[in-house]
Structures are given as structure tokens and as C-alpha cells.
Design a protein that fits this description.
The chain is α/β, with parallel strands linked by helices. It has three domains: 13-155, Alpha-D-Glucose-1,6-Bisphosphate, subunit A, domain 3 (Alpha-D-Glucose-1,6-Bisphosphate, Chain A, domain 3); 161-170 and 177-366, 3-Layer(aba) Sandwich (Alpha-D-Glucose-1,6-Bisphosphate, Chain A, domain 3), CATH 3.40.120.10; 374-449, Alpha-D-phosphohexomutase, C-terminal domain (TATA-Binding Protein, 2-Layer Sandwich), CATH 3.30.310. The protein is built from 14 helices and 18 strands. It starts with 12 loop residues before the first strand and ends with a helix. 50% of the residues are buried.
């Protein structure tokens, strides 16, 4: 049975700054509500860790959250700009009751949001998010003055996290001789990622490391890797690494300037784990993961399963299966044998370690997996109660296409979670055929739901 939450989505609360719920007054009440929930779960003084990315509104929301949490009688620890996965790690190691990240991930500076982590460094379970939403319905009240929470700052947060990241590849591994371009998207990895790779021996050319509060993710980072590809080629670097604004996603570029997406990074890591006889069970992708990933893993006898789109669902499936490796084509990679959440720096280090361990360029490693051409057409759906996927004519067309494509092809119909469209995706070996079939199917779907393509 689906759980209906008013504010929390699959990855926290997010929206345009100044529009409900991304407003200072809401953030104050959210801080108070979270403080009340977590104050009831511990003994003695409780504390909540608060970090943020580099967007300008983060300062405003940090102050509002601080007021709300302390009014509830809970101490806070401020880290300043830090990657989202760093907050997950520090929440755990500093023994905080929860961690809060002020970030809108890969969105532009005009958006912001809130992500929560449990004391174990994992996303909050549904029951805790529902408990916070229940508190939001109440009026804010302040504990007696002697019980008001205190605020402190972790002055060595960056250093702690840098050392953790380095530890994930072992003390004997060195990146000496490698030239790397690192694009931090003017986001929260700007003072972390370059240091990690430099301290491991690589020669680093850093770009996207001049945040001004307004340029986060602007024409840079994992969502816009064009500049990274150009820089890798002009610098004659061995490879490039691009993070998103809050550092939980990564996309790479090989020495030829070709983009290496999350599916390919996942394959490189899985293949190297298998080569080293490191047990990880299998790999979890999503409905959008390229079929080429599934087929390449099948050739290696590595089990593969698909989850719903969203890192929350990938994590859920990993925990159900007891597996350790999963991710999305967007670059959100989860290495559960190393850390508790998707971490762009940690994931890129695992891929880079594969390059060193195999003594092969990234291009050669990722080319061992052949991505299949995909074509996706969006069909506008005004009535989301219409079950297009089960429509008799649509289903018949899907079965016909699947029979034409055979084993090395598939069809996916998926309602978007963010806009009123149905995504019609066809995947197969021949791009021209795939594009033609996707167009034909999208036209049929549009006719059945009464909306032109």
C-alpha cells in the first residue's frame, strides 16, 4: 500500500526558493518538528548535524533550521558546505541522532531542498518522515531556556571526510602518473574532491571550483559534462570526473572525451570486484538502466535486478537481496560494502582503482560493455488515472515490438514522477529501427489517451 506524504518525496523535500514549502518559515518549523521527533528517540542531550551545498539560499535556510532545532531542545553541529554523502558519514561517526543536508542536488541555484539521514547514515524510513510531517501540523513551541539547544561547528569536517574517502581504496593504492580533470560543478565537492585525488598521487586539473552561490551546476558538473570532455582533451588528461552540486552523483570522461555514464561506471566497478574475488552478491539497476549493462553482467555471470527509478528504491532492493552494488545511469552509484549511501567521490575512486588495478585506460574498461541504442519519446497525459500500460491496443503493440527486437531489446512505458508525461522508451541493437518503433508506439499511446505527441 503506497504511503502518502505531503512534503517528503523520494529524495527529501525540494522546490523553488520562496515558494512553499521552500521558505524560511517552513524551514524553521521543519527544524523544530525534526528536533521534536529525534529528541524523543535518544537519552540525554541529542544532536543533529547540519550541512549544505554552495547555493546562496543555503545560508538563509541554515539559520532557520538552526532556530527550529534548538527551540526543540536539540543541539546542532554545523559543517558548512559539505557533500551530501559526507553528512551521512559524519552523522554516523559523530554519533548524531540525525543529519540534515540543505541541497537541491543537480538543480540550479534557484531551487533548494532538504535531505535527512538517520543516525546510521541512511535515508530516513517512512515512519520517521511521517512522524515529522505529523509534528508539522502543530504549533512551534520553545523548550524552557535552560534546555534550548546549543550550536557548535566542526572545524575539521573536510579533513575527516577526505581521509575517509582515501581509506576506501586502501593505503597501498596510488594514482601516481595519472592526470585527471575534476569538475566540481561549483558545488559542495569543490574543496574536497581535488584534495582527495591529489593526496592519492594524481596530477589534478580542477574546474568548477569557484562557487559564488549562483553558479552551482551551471554548464558544469555531471549534468553538463561537455566542458569536462573538452578540458580532458585539451589537457591531454587520462580521464575526467564530474560531480553534481551535492556530490552524490558522478559521471566520467575517458581520454578520448567520451562520456562514461552511471551504467558504465557500475559495470567497471562490478567487473573489477569480480576479478578480485570480492563478494558483492549482484548488481541492482533501475528500469532505465541500459540493457547493455544487463547483458554485459550476464556474460560475467553476475546477477542483475531492476528497481524503480530512484536511489531509494535501488537501496531498498539491495537490502532485500543482501547485495552490495547498485545505481542509476545518472551516476548515482551505491557501494554498500564501503558506505551507506550514494557517494560520487567514493564511486569515482572505485572506478579509478579499476583503471590502476587492471593497468588499462578507462576507455578500454568501459568498452567491454556495449550500450544499446535507446530512443525515448514523452507523451503528455492529462489524466493520470488512465492505465495506459494495461491498455489492450498498447499492450498488443508492445508485445509485437518486443518480439521484433528479441533478446537484445526491450520496451518501457513509465509515468514520470515529476511531470504529466508517459515516457515511451524502446531499446535495441539498431538505432534507426529503435527510433522508428519508439515513434510508432508513442503515436499509438497518444491516440489511446487522446493527447498528441
Amino acid at each position: 500500500m503506497p504511503i502518502n506524504k505531503k512534503y517528503f518525496g523520494t529524495d527529501g523535500i525540494r522546490g523553488a526558493v520562496g515558494k512553499a514549502p521552500i521558505t524560511p518559515d517552513f524551514m524553521l518549523k521543519l527544524g523544530w518538528s525534526a528536533g521534536r521527533v529525534f529528541a524523543s528517540k535518544g537519552n540525554g542531550r541529542n544532536k543533529i548535524l547540519i550541512g549544505k551545498d554552495t547555493r546562496i539560499s543555503g545560508y538563509m535556510f541554515e539559520a532557520a533550521l538552526e532556530a527550529g532545532v534548538t527551540a526543540a531542545g536539540v543541539d546542532i553541529i554545523l559543517t558548512g558546505p559539505m557533500p551530501t554523502p559526507a553528512i551521512a558519514y559524519l552523522t554516523r561517526t559523530l554519533r548524531a541522532q540525525a543529519g540534515i543536508v540543505i541541497s537541491a542536488s543537480h538543480n540550479s541555484f534557484a531551487d533548494n531542498g532538504i535531505k535527512f539521514f538517520s543516525s546510521n547514515g541512511t535515508k530516513l524510513p517512512d515512519e520517521v518522515e511521517l512522524a515529522i510531517e505529523k509534528q508539522l501540523k502543530k504549533n512551534v513551541s520553545t523548550v524552557p531556556s535552560e534546555l534550548i539547544g546549543k550550536a557548535s561547528r566542526v572545524t575539521d569536517a573536510a579533513g575527516r571526510y577526505i581521509e575517509f574517502c582515501k581509506s576506501t581504496v586502501g593505503s597501498s593504492l596510488k594514482f601516481n602518473g595519472l592526470k585527471i580533470v575534476v569538475d566540481c560543478a561549483h558545488g559542495s565537492t569543490y574543496h574536497i574532491a581535488p584534495a582527495v585525488f591529489e593526496e592519492l598521487g594524481a596530477k589534478v586539473k580542477a574546474i568548477g571550483v569557484s562557487p559564488d552561490g549562483l553558479n552551482i551546476n551551471k554548464n558544469s558538473g555531471s549534468t553538463s559534462p561537455g566542458l569536462l570532455a573538452q578540458t580532458v582533451k585539451s589537457e591531454q588528461a587520462d580521464l575526467g570526473i564530474a560531480f553534481d552540486g551535492d556530490g552524490d552523483r558522478v559521471v566520467m570522461v575517458d581520454h578520448l572525451g567520451n562520456i562514461v555514464d552511471g551504467d558504465e561506471i557500475l559495470y567497471v566497478i562490478a567487473r573489477d570486484r569480480q576479478r578480485q574475488n570480492i563478494e558483492f552478491g549482484g548488481v541492482v539497476g533501475t528500469a532505465m538502466s541500459n540493457l547493455g549493462l544487463e547483458l554485459a553482467l550476464e556474460d560475467l555471470n553476475i546477477p542483475f535486478m531492476r528497481a524503480r527509478v530512484g536511489d531509494r528504491y535501488v537501496m531498498q532492493k539491495l537490502l532485500e537481496e543482501g547485495w552490495k552494488l547498485g545505481g542509476e545511469s545518472s551516476g548515482h552509484i551505491i557501494c554498500l560494502d564501503i558506505t551507506t549511501t550514494g557517494d560520487g567521490i567514493v564511486s569515482s575512486l572505485q572506478a579509478l582503482a579499476s583503471v590502476v588495478n587492471c593497468n588499462q585506460p578507462l576507455a578500454d574498461l568501459k568498452n567491454k560493455m556495449s550500450k544499446l541504442p535507446q530512443s525515448m519519446v514523452n507523451v503528455r497525459v492529462t489524466d493520470d488515472s488512465v492505465d495506459v500500460v494495461s491498455n489492450k491496443n498498447v499492450r498488443s503493440a508492445v508485445l509485437d515490438i518486443e518480439s521484433k527486437l528479441g533478446k537484445n531489446g526491450r520496451v518501457l512505458l513509465r509515468l514520470s514522477g515529476t511531470e504529466p508525461v508517459l515516457r515511451v522508451m524502446v531499446e535495441g541493437e539498431d538505432l534507426e529501427i529503435v527510433e522508428c518503433l519508439a515513434q510508432e508506439l508513442s503515436e499509438l499511446v497518444a491516440m489511446e489517451v487522446g493527447n498528441p505527441v
